[in-house]
Amino acid sequence: MFADRLIEAVRAKQTPLCVGLDPFAEKIPALFGDAREEIAAIERFGEAVVSLAAQHAGVFKPQLGLFEPYGPDGVRVAQEIVSEARALGMVVILDAKRGDIGTTAEGYARASFGQAPGFDADCVTVNPYLGADSIEPFLARAERDAKGVAVLVRTSNPGARDLQDLDCSGAPLWRRTAEMLAAQTGRLKGRSGWSGLMAVAGATYPEEARALRQTLPDALFLVPGYGAQGASAADAVAGFTMTPRGREGGVVNSSRGVTYPQGAQHAATLDAWREIVSTAMAGAAAELRAACNA
Amino acid sequence: MFADRLIEAVRAKQTPLCVGLDPFAEKIPALFGDAREEIAAIERFGEAVVSLAAQHAGVFKPQLGLFEPYGPDGVRVAQEIVSEARALGMVVILDAKRGDIGTTAEGYARASFGQAPGFDADCVTVNPYLGADSIEPFLARAERDAKGVAVLVRTSNPGARDLQDLDCSGAPLWRRTAEMLAAQTGRLKGRSGWSGLMAVAGATYPEEARALRQTLPDALFLVPGYGAQGASAADAVAGFTMTPRGREGGVVNSSRGVTYPQGAQHAATLDAWREIVSTAMAGAAAELRAACNA
């Protein structure tokens, strides 16, 4: 089951850190190639990031929206990076935020979970606005192929308030979304007791994450917003559950903070870049480890 | 402006018909090639559909989720079909239902609107769950490049009720979504008076479409659900506004009904297939024309 693979990856690395890859051509060091050939530089940079990430974290999250501007080549490179991460033993959450109905949702599920020419990712992020029948095709395929589905519940951006916090007859919309998912978590539940029907719960709103845990006691959380977006490690794990192993219950993503740390862009050599990025990843991993054990 | 291009395309064809392309390999006639080479068959089928669609409708909507399972090749074929439709003078709405924040949303906007390796589509469908700051990057790029943005407000599927109909302090969520958009429609308003900040309003819920028109008087509507999904032509144009030219205010999509009509799959020759599909498209165009003039 996906849930067990994910929680095992977290336990093996003793940190809930998930390394995110958001390719920004203008932030990639010149070491990775001519900025005029952006997608080639992204490919080399992505592979280098993955090889370091696999040393410090068990989970990897590529941001598909930043590969897509490169068209078919962007998709090809994203797929190669996903394959590489899986080959190195990482669990891959494809951040695609898809959402559609019926056969189209089946198409997105096949694109995300299917083997080549699909991504063969372990999990994909999904938007719930269209309702339960838009999530069902992802769930059905995830059940069949031992994959995971991470549904946006309470995101980390300021605009999350616009719709997700609206009062829906006594509870905010994000809680109604969570209630809609609660009936389904059992379908992706592993032997660990955790469910691979994940909830996206932004680190920038720790109170909401704690409340969300009440509604979804067994869902693994995917927590964006830690690091560059401003949330602390303690806030990031606020929705985790205290266990004899420490706080557990999901992964905390860091993208910019660990892939474009200070000094990395202008590193003189590849070894110097590796040292800077490795230190940033190790730091984030340790900080989150400490927060889970606090 | 996109809004003017779209409404001119509707007026020129005297019908709000938008032809949708949902590639289902198993429904494509054997005339278009060996089903074992699905993406090649989809490419030929898509080009044939577009060449007929351009005769009957001003607007074309490819469903990206059904190209993506084919990986980089799927994106390449989708882009070629979009180019072909635009070359034939059609306005293209890329049905991608994207939604993300900040720089990732900018990435999706660049992928949708940018020239090659982007899609260079006229408009893209967007999901509002993440709030106004997730729509802003699409709007900003649309303003700059004279493109359109079609935001999901009230979709046509049964599950639309799950979240979109929740009572948010006296009004359903879909109306709150519409209110969030109302402040922005002026930014994409054309000389026609219509705005290219479109609202997706399912034909299967005509009462909601009429109510939505009160909140968004100048937004063009993208109406799914007509035909194969069961809504009548009268229901489909329920949210349009009566003008001296008849009912106006958006486009009505038909995908399966006009691209896989009865008898088309087993047509003996390409000419026979063209005849069947052309008749279906002409029929839908005429039915919607009549509904606009009723």
What does this protein structure show overall?
- The structure is a homodimer of 294-residue chains.
- With 294 residues, chain A is α/β, with parallel strands linked by helices.
- The first copy, chain A, has a single domain, classed as Alpha-Beta Barrel (TIM Barrel), CATH 3.20.20.
- In chain A, the strands form 3 sheets. Chain A has an 8-stranded parallel β-barrel, surrounded by 8 helices. In chain A, strands 6-7 form a two-stranded antiparallel ribbon. In chain A, strands 10-11 form a two-stranded antiparallel ribbon.
- In chain A, strand 6 and strand 7 form a beta hairpin.
- The longest helix of chain A is centred in the C-terminal third of the chain and has 24 residues.
- Chain A is globular and about 55 Å long.
- The mean pLDDT of chain A is 96.
- At the A-B interface, helix 3, strand 3, helix 4, helix 5 and helix 6 of A face helix 3, strand 3, helix 4, helix 5 and helix 6 of B.
